[in-house]
Design goal:
Elements lengths: L4 E5 L14 E2 L6 E3 L10 E3 L6
Antiparallel strand pairs: 1-2, 3-4
Bound molecules: iron/sulfur cluster.
Length: about 55
């Protein structure tokens, strides 16, 4: 059972690092980045630690 990191809330249940029972990430840290040249809104940012289940 993975331990929830209560400092990182996340709802991406298809990620292997998601705590299925709670909406938290189980990693100690995550890398956030962007796929845009000049990000201007939340949709421009990505969790680069995502890994498909
Ligand atoms: S690695 Fe990123 S996408 Fe995956 S559960 Fe953690 S915060 Fe969510």
């Amino acid at each position: 059972m993975e331990k929830a990191n209560e400092s990182i809330r996340c709802s991406v249940t298809s990620c292997r690092h998601h705590c299925t029972s709670k909406d938290y990430c189980s990693l100690q840290t995550v890398q956030i980045g962007t796929h845009e040249y000049c990000p201007t809104e939340d949709q421009c940012t990505d969790c680069k630690s995502f890994a498909l289940k």
